[in-house]
Design a protein that fits this description.
This protein is of the alpha+beta class. The chain has one domain. 45% of the residues lie in helices and 16% in strands. The chain has a two-stranded antiparallel ribbon. It is globular. The protein starts with 5 loop residues before the first helix and ends with a helix.
């Protein structure tokens, strides 16, 4: 089992890397201890990168 917060940090790091934004611009807004998480992207660049990634063709 992962240490407390380690999985959250891994998810944030993975998403930040995929979006090419700093880890500090991504946070877990709910679901800290759940398998299901809601993430927040702070800052204009992070939100723009997220929207662009979601709208990009697969």
């Amino acid at each position: 089992m992962l240490d407390k917060g380690k999985a959250n940090a891994a998810v944030i790091g993975l998403l930040a890397k995929a979006l090419s934004v700093p880890k500090s611009s991504i946070s877990v807004s709910s679901g800290d201890t759940s398998r299901f998480k809601t993430l927040a992207a702070g800052g204009r660049a992070a939100r723009a990168a997220l929207v662009e990634a979601l709208l990009a063709p697969a």
